[in-house]
Amino acid sequence: MDASLETQLRELLDKQAIHDLVNAYCNAADRHDHAKMRALYHEDAIDDHGHFARGPAMEFIDKLPEIQKPMAILHHNVTTVNLKLDGDRAEGEVYILAFHQVKHEGELFDVLIGGRYFDKYEKRAGLWKFSHRAIVADWCYPAHPTQVRLDHPFLHGAYIGEPGPADPSYAFFSLLKRGER
């Protein structure tokens, strides 16, 4: 294999590893899998989630159980991913649609956010992880009361997702495991 092709292959593999990292983050957030979330960041990483937390990512993850407590549904969807590699570091602008169903004062309301993650990644010991992540909101669509109807006849007999280890994915899959990247 010539050097040019080897360089292109390495870049392709690195970009795929970063895509996998970004997708694993969405899964960890939506399933409230804090062990998995912790494994996605370097120990000295920074996370900026606005009023929820700004600073060390591990402190943000420590706060996640309380932050997520009122959230009946979390559903993160990655759309456009722009990545730039520079050796063992990279930067990414990741577009997301994030749906939240939140319980407040006994009532459920919905918040759909269109935004982006501004990410910095580093590959250490051969593994890509977040070194810095910041959330940017581009728009927000709230609905009060909630418009979600999990009892709609169209969903009759379907698996219904939920946060935590009771989600049907954990019984269905044998390779995708809770707490693992």
UniProtKB/TrEMBL annotation:
Q: Which InterPro entries match?
A: NTF2-like_dom_sf, SnoaL-like
Ranges for the SnoaL-like domain?
Answer: 10-133
Pfam families linked: SnoaL_4
UniProt name for this protein: SnoaL-like domain-containing protein
Q: Which CDD domains match?
A: NTF2_like (cd00531)
The lineage, from the top, is: Bacteria, Pseudomonadati, Pseudomonadota, Gammaproteobacteria, Nevskiales
